[in-house]
Write a structure and sequence with these properties.
By secondary structure, the chain is of the alpha+beta class. The protein contains 7 helices and 18 strands. Among the domains are: about 140 residues, no CATH class; about 120 residues, no CATH class. The radius of gyration is 29 Å and the shape is flat.
């Protein structure tokens, strides 16, 4: 029954891989079209002047980023003047389960392996679910009363152009934000005041004894995110820079740190699109290969255990799975491209078929060798 379940699960993985690969190619094609279109339309303009003639068009600007408001954590009363982003980092002292294997000799003289669970105290930024601990006598963690969070400015200016704050804040360089003793009272109130609040190493520490923290104690620190010079590509809409919608419906908005020309930004974006597509492709093909290997479980799970021919059977199954992955994966990828670049799509399909054919020949030779030995 386990082997049959593996085979069915393998078919499911193959289906998921097909969907993933086809989606990835569609995403890559649409993004490539939009970027190529944008690269041919973009106009380089000065950031310190709003020219109505460029309204509604794709433009490129460069300038110093200036926050238009202050990112703040109102719950704890912390602000980061002049920054683009404020990050709240929270950690709670919790129990963490660690497993290890212990060997002992039984009464019959055989070595028996037993899994032993230990528990250590760690400062964790996420809640550790102690209900999943394996040992019945394991300690328990309390609920985490506050989580980490990020606060961005609403808007930033580059020259005279307004840009959404989260777009600029994503480029920020984070540095620790010093805290003041003045904020201790509000920080304590934010956590309900159940424990005293201390300021230790620029962190608020909620603990009865700061020198001897206990399970459930909380420490909270902050980072500020700053941005200096920025280059951006988007649609001029009055005094704002927003996403440009290409003819295929895909949005184009590019932003990066430093001084960069429009040509460089589009070149980087196209390279990034290609790299991401290959990452998704490799993941999809690996998923498909694993699916095919699982579908061969009824074969490899029986003949693969036999002496002499077991290794050949497993090797043949691996080659067959690889051949089928290249054939089917290449077909799916080729179909995804064929509507956008027919010659490339046909080449991808032909290459996949050729590789699958060559690997199929090797697979048949291994099967023949296995049959002869049997």
């Amino acid at each position: 029954m386990g082997i049959l379940k593996s085979a069915v699960f393998g078919l499911l993985l193959i289906g998921v891989a097909i969907i993933l690969l086809f989606w990835a190619e569609g995403r890559a094609v649409n993004t490539a079209r939009a970027l190529e279109e944008g690269a041919g339309l973009v106009a380089e303009i000065a950031a310190d002047r709003i020219d109505p003639a460029h309204d509604g068009k794709l433009v490129h600007i460069t300038g110093d980023a200036v926050a238009q408001d202050v990112p703040a954590d109102s719950r704890f009363g912390v602000r980061a003047e002049g920054a683009m982003r404020l990050v709240r980092n929270v950690e709670m002292l919790q129990w963490k389960e660690i497993s290890r294997e212990v060997e002992r000799t039984g009464n019959d003289g055989k070595i028996v392996k037993t899994t032993v669970y230990d528990y250590e105290r760690v400062w964790s930024p996420t809640a550790i679910d102690s209900s999943r601990f394996k040992s019945a006598s394991a300690p328990r963690n309390p609920a985490m009363p506050v989580q980490g969070d990020t606060f961005d400015v609403m808007a930033a200016k580059i020259g005279r152009f307004l840009i959404a704050g989260n777009e600029v804040a994503a480029l920020s360089r984070k540095t620790p934000l010093p805290l003041s003793e003045d904020g201790i009272r509000q920080a304590a109130a934010a956590l309900g005041g159940a424990k005293p609040m201390w300021l230790v190493n620029d962190q608020f520490l909620s603990a009865s004894d700061p020198d001897n923290p206990k399970i459930g104690d909380i420490r909270i620190g902050y980072e500020r995110g700053d941005v200096s010079r920025v280059s951006a590509v988007g649609k001029q809409q009055g005094d704002r820079l927003v996403s440009y919608t290409a003819s295929n419906g895909r949005d184009v908005f590019l932003i990066q740190n430093g001084q960069a020309s429009a040509a460089d930004m589009f070149r980087d974006a196209i390279a990034g699109n290609t790299a991401l597509t290959w990452v998704i492709r490799c993941g999809g093909l690996a998923l498909m290969f694993g699916g095919f290997m699982l579908t061969f479980a009824p074969l490899t799970g029986t003949l693969g255990r036999l002496p002499l021919i077991g290794g050949l059977v497993r090797g043949g199954a691996g080659l067959a799975a690889l051949a089928m992955t290249l054939l089917l994966g290449g077909l799916v990828i080729g179909i995804g491209w064929i509507f956008f670049r027919p010659l490339l799509g046909i080449a991808i399909i032909a290459g996949g078929v050729a590789l699958a054919f060559v690997l199929g020949i090797f697979g048949k030779k291994k099967e023949a060798a296995a049959a002869a030995q049997a």
